[in-house]
Automatic annotation (TrEMBL):
Taxonomic superkingdom: Bacteria
Domain Helix-turn-helix intervals: 3-53
Name of the molecule in the record: Helix-turn-helix domain-containing protein
Alphabetized InterPro entries for the sequence: DNA-bd_dom_put_sf, HTH_17
Length: 64
């Protein structure tokens, strides 16, 4: 299991660490857990979260 920092998750999605923290705060981001003072994310869980978002967008698209 590889753990990612907030900064690494942000880099993966080309956004800022503040955005990742906001996603976590409002409950729409990948699940993370505190280890001491840091929030760390399981890389596999981050990938699953992203796939669920991408799959959800595909399901809601309307083709004309």
């Amino acid at each position: 299991m590889r753990l990612l920092t907030t900064e690494e998750v942000a880099a993966r999605f080309r956004t800022s660490p503040a955005t990742v923290r906001y996603w976590r705060h409002i409950g729409i981001g990948p699940d993370g857990g505190r280890v001491g003072r840091r929030v760390l994310y399981d890389e596999q869980e981050v990938d699953r979260w992203w796939r669920s978002k991408v799959d959800g967008q595909k399901a809601t698209r309307v083709h004309s």
